[in-house]
Amino acid sequence: MPTLKMTDAAIQRVMAAPGERTDYFDSHPRDRQRGLVLRVSAGAEGKVSRTWSALYRIKGSNKLRRATIGDYPTYTLAQARDEAAQYVQSARRGVDLAQERMAAARAQAAKERDTIDAVVKSFLEHWEKQPKRRGGKRAESYIETLQQHFDNRVLPRWRGRHIGDIQRSDVKELVTEVAKEAPVLANRVLAALKAMFNWALREDPPLIQANPAALVERPGVETARDRVLSAEEMRFIWPALDGLGYPFGPCLKLTLLTAQRRDEVAGMCWSEIDEEAKVWTIPANRNKARRVHVVPLSKEALEVIKELKAMRREDVDFVFSTTGKTSISGFSRAKRLLDEAITKARKEKEFGPLARWTIHDLRRTAATEMSRLKVPRLVVGRVLNHKDTGITGIYDRNEFLAEKKAALAQWASYLLSIVTPQPNKVASLAARRRTARVTR
Description:
Elements: E1 3-4, H1 8-13, E2 21-26, E3 36-42, E4 48-57, E5 64-71, H2 77-92, H3 97-113, H4 116-129, H5 140-158, H6 168-181, H7 183-202, H8 231-244, H9 248-258, H10 262-266, E6 273-274, E7 279-282, E8 293-296, H11 299-309, H12 331-348, H13 360-372, H14 377-384, H15 391-395, H16 401-419, H17 429-439
C-alpha cells in the first residue's frame, strides 16, 4: 500500500484517476499515526473524494479490520489521527471499538424509538388504521381527541422518558392531577394510556413487560348525561347554525333533523341518498349498530339537502367535505365558533350564556321531543337505530319505515315551528283604526 507524508497540502494534492481508488498510509516522519489510512477515489465524472479509515488487528487475532472514520475535510488530519489512535489502542487491549460504538448506536436508537414521544406517534398511526372491534374505520374525530389527550396532558409531563421507565405511580400521579381540574377528562386520559400501553405490550417484540396503567382506577365519577335542549335554547342554536355555514352548519342541522349520530351524518355520501324515495341509507360499516339503517328524510331535511346539492362537486361523493377525499372532522373548533355566536346573540337580547351543551345533546333532544310528541318508544328506538336485544327484537326484522317517517316528520315540523320567528299577530291601535275607517 502506498504511503503519504500527510499534511493538509499533500492531502489536497493527491488525486485518483476516474473510476479508481487508492489507499495511502500515513508516513509523516514526526506525526505519523499507525493504522491511519486515506482512501482517495474518483467517480466517473472525475470528482475526487477523500475518506479516512483505520486498520487494526484485535489482540490474539490475525484478521485485519477496517473502521471508517469519515471524509476529509469534515474530519481534519488531526481528528483522523486521534480517531485512528483510539481504534488501534483499543485493539491492543483486545477491544473492538468499532463494534462497541455500533452496539451503543443501536442501543441509543432503540432508546429514542421507545421514548413516550415516539411510542405515542406510532400508537396513533396504528390506531388510525386499526378497525374497531365490531369492524369499520375509527372516526377521525376519535383519533383527533386521542391526540389532544396525549399532546395536552401526557407528553408535557413525560416527554423524552423511555416507555419502560413509566411506573404505575407515574400514571396515578398524572391522572390525579388532571382530575383536580376535570374528573371526567382524567378518565378519558387514563383510557387512552391503557390503550397505548396495551398496544406496546402486544408489539413484537414487546416494548414493555407490563401495562403500568392496568390497575389504576378511574379518578372521576361519571353520571349519564341527560341534557335536553329547551325550545328557548333551540331558538338561538338554529340561526347560529345558519351563521356557521358549510360544512358544519348544515351537517349539524341534519344531525338534529334526522336524530342520527354526528359522525354518521358527517360521513354522509350522495350515493346513500335516494331523493325520490326520500330516504338516506346508512351502510352497516358506517354506523354503531353494524347493520343497514334506513332513515326517512322529512320535508325539512330534504330542503337542507337540496341547498347542499346546489354546491355539490360531481367528482366528490361526500356530502360534507373540505378536501374532496375525506369527510369532515374538527368539530371541536366548529362547536367553539358556534358557542361564541350563540353567546353574542343572547347577550344582544339580554339573555345569560347558554349552559354547557354538546353536539350529542342534539340527538338526545330530538329523541326526547319525539317521545313528548307521543311517538312510541319502540319507534324512537328504531329512529335512533338502537339495538333491540330481546327475543322479539331478534326475530322482528320489521323496518318500521312508515312509523319512522311519521315520527321524523312530526319532529321536524315541531322543530321548525319553534325556531322560525312568528309574525306579530297583534295589530297596533292605529292600524285597527285605519282598518275600521276603510271598512265603513
